[in-house]
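DM from R.C. (forwarded with permission)

"hey, sorry to bug you on a friday — could you get me a structure for this? deadline for the figure draft is monday and I only need the backbone to look sensible"
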Amino acid sequence: MPPRLPTLFRLMLGWIMILSAGAAMATEEPSYSIVKQATDYELRRYAAYRVAEVEVKGAFESVGGEAFRLLAGYIFGDNQGETKIAMTAPVSQQPVREQGTRIEMTAPVTQTPTADPERYRVSFIMPARYSLETLPRPNNPRIQLREEPARLVAARRYSGTWSETRYRDEERALLDALARDGLSPHGAPIYARYNSPFSLPMLRRNEILVEVEELDTP
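My reply, with the result:
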């Protein structure tokens, strides 16, 4: 019987196969309709969806590794029933307030360096066929299951590096565009990644997402 591959290697291999650009099978994404197409962002109305998420501490560009290991373990069978769950896209990362209050993705966030590590919430979106009641319970108590309610979201898409500097530039561009168009962000920013770490930067789909207040209707 061949030896088992190291856990981290298997997780990274799963990431490559599932999220690499040009994968043969389409990766499921949350359902949404386009409300408005601007030159520098897209306004989307998302239906409710479920997420598995974990809170991690560390630098913006390094917390994803720990979070991915925990969440990938959950969907690859580290749950009650050892159920394997198909991976969807994107993988989302957002800052968490010191008090633990959630900061929504893609809203204005200014990170001020402090003596304590920053805290982030990293989420895997669950396949639409699952409800909160039917999702397998995680074995790891750090992983939480939650429903993201239906909401109106502004999305700015870009390719390239996953650096924090690029993320902040794109975030500011989105917030400036929303202010120009009279749209009010509700909460803080989400950083969404749709591809594997081994994909070419030029082929990556990255997005800044921010919930916005509902449009006034006549």
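R.C.: lifesaver. The chain is about 20% helix and 25% strand.
me: no worries. The longest helix spans residues 164-180.
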